[in-house]
Amino acid sequence: VQLQASGGGLVQAGGSLRLSCAASGIIFSRNVMGWNRQAPGKQRELVADISTGGRTNYGDSVVGRFTISRDNDKNTVYLQMNLLKPEDTAVYYCNVRSVFGRAPEYWGQGTQVTVSS
Predict the structure, then answer these.
(1) DSSP state, 59?
(2) 2 and 107 in contact (C-beta within 8 Å)?
(3) pLDDT value at position 97?
């Protein structure tokens, strides 16, 4: 299984970024896809996930600002991040969880997002 994340970078507060994660080695449409993030000195936390049917779930700190989506034809999950804040600065990881799994089974390599004030 490979998860290739891209789209991170440096942006000013209030700006936007769109992360992408291309998956291979799995039946993409049958898995829950998600994004987590980890800031320096902090634990990894849920950002968002999306079920096989398109139901979404967000961490409290990103509700109303971030949107997760998936394209099953392209085996890709996206994270649109708007109104970015300095506290969104972290390494963002995409992940895969089976429908009956309790935690992600596979993780991507991470992409750095830095928001300047």
Answers:
(1) -
(2) no
(3) 95
Question: The tokens of 55 are what?
Answer: 């139901």
CA angle 30, 93, 98 (to 5 degrees): 20
Residue 63 amino acid letter: V
Contact status, residue 49 vs residue 36, Cβ threshold 8 Å: no
> What is the tens place of the pLDDT at every residue in 61-106?
999 999 999 999 999 999 999 999 999 999 999 999 998 989 999 9
Decide if 70 contacts 33 (C-beta within 8 A): yes
Q: Which residues, other chains included, contact 22 with Cβ-Cβ below 8 Å and sequence gap of 6+?
A: 3, 4, 6, 74, 75, 76
Q: Which amino acid is at 78?
A: Y
Q: How far apart are alpha carbons 24 and 37 in whole angstroms? A: 21
